[in-house]
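so my prof wants the structure for this chain in the tokens format not the other one, which i didnt know existed until like an hour ago. anyway here's the sequence
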Amino acid sequence: MNFFLKIKLFLSLVMLVSCTAQVWSQPSNTDLEIKTLISRLDTNSLKPIISNQKNLASWAQELLDFYKKRNTIKHPINIQKDGEVISEKDQKYANDALKHIFVGQPAYPSHFCGEDINWNSRPVPDNEWVWQLNRMYFWNAMGKVYKATGDERYAKEWCAQLVDWTKKNPRDQAHAYAWRSIEAGIRGHNWTSLFFRFIQSENFTQEVLIALLNSCYEHAEYLMTTYSSGSNWALMEAEGLAFIAFTFPEFKNSEKWKKEAIRRLSIEINNQVNSDGHQKELAMGYHLGSINWFYRTYELASLNDAENAFPESYQNTIALMCEVPMKICLPDGTNAQFGDSWAGIPGQHSDRFMKWYELFKRDDFLFMATDGEKGEKPEKTAFALEESGIYSLRSGWDKNATCMVLKCGPDGGFHCQPDNGTFTLYAGGRTLMPDAGCYIYHGDPKERNWFRQTSVHQTLTLNGANIKYAPRLLKWKPGNDLDILAVENASYDNLTHHRMVFFVDKTYFVIVDEAIGKAVGDVDIHFQLAPGDAVFNAKDFSVHSQYAEGWNVLVQSIKQKGLELSEEEGKVSFEYTKQEARPAFRYRLKKTKENQITRFVTVVAPYQKEIPDIKFKVISGGKKAEETFQVQVQVNGEKRVLNCNF
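here's what i got, hopefully its the right format
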């Protein structure tokens, strides 16, 4: 062999041996992960339990044994007395997850994310899908089904997916889809429940424990750096931080995390909850979510003898928040769809009220939880949430009661809509005039804006433009046979909307609208009915729904010079990404002079069987905007004179 060739071969062999030695001498990824975890734990407190720190594999096994036996930490999951109810949806989500078919935003179909899971899957253009994919609500379903059945398929697959996610999703810009602070907070809360659900599984190995603990540490440290004060995000951030801190006190920084989470929640319950108990975004879904976010950490702290870390007022504020759905939800338990809210299903709050009854021992909560079979019904039938600007007028507490919920409140931010003066009407077991809802968040900005615009709500506009938030309560006078509510909103720079509502004999409503100010143009009041047929009568300026069975509603405005009645495009959304057509219309008066009085008087009358016979007229006053005037209303022969004094 050529001498130079021999030398070259020898040097190549030396390099190969050297490189091989380097590979052999490098610790495995698991070793690095264990060492990282050791640096994050308070190993001094663990020394009596875990003795061998030289052999990393043995150390990890002892740590796993410790967590499988540990029973000193109380968590809402591990103190449950009764077995959880597994819904069909839970079962489907869990079974689909075994095949990597995952649910993101649940309004869209579940999606196969690959044998090698792509956690950045985007089957639809709506970012809500990928964001919610990385909240892994399907993992919660897997945990429930596993706990109920003991079927190791769910545990094995969850363990594999947990490790897979932690490896594929480091916290960097490339993985921002998974690391918004809201997702991190939700995971921080949910993963602690999953830890307790799966820890006893034979598939919960050292690798799973190390991946989970290291990721929980990274979640907590990240959540310490982000604080979305004033937003519901702040509550989810704090909750995730708290649940990690309480569940894993073995981390060096757990006490610091715990104190910071409680500090934030104690601040936010004052910042985000109005004096009347409503969460400031004025959307029922976020209000109910906020109750959970505030309460769950308090409950966790109480279970672990740390409730005194919260101020004394904290629990009282939660109780006040729990009153809100009792006061302003509709008689069947559904919601007025103000802002980013959906009506939901009848009776949806029963379980919540039972939990609140057990917490606060209030008989009115028990009444709501049991559909009136137990407890005591609320003393009032009319409620004013003055700071939030939401008011409810109802005839009683049975499911067929007549109820109007009206909104005239401050700007609640992203989840609120410019709709002051709008209302929802319910009677005879049916929502007859629902609010539009919101349809979608980020997936279709054009359609979101359509549902947000003022003119698709039951209120007043000038030239069809969106209004400003500038509310004021003028009068609140509930009574035995007459409830009176008067509000105003400085909707435009030179035009204020006055709206007075009379609930007459707990039966029908008279609504007086005034447009006051120097601005001129087309002044409209808009109304929308529930989906279904409607009859328009231009002669007497009336519109009524036309359901073959059950209750209907008649809307009729007093005749006056220049009044026009026209149909409008009507849509309503009861579920995310779903919408349907409905009757919609407007009454219009042209305001041509600065000092012109522009006033509408409208009867809104729910009825069963026969259409009400309505006659009404202004009988005195009202020549000037600030002047008291009287309206005589006759419904089916019964006369009432109403003093309209704003």
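also thought this was worth mentioning. Residues 3-25 form the longest helix (23 residues).
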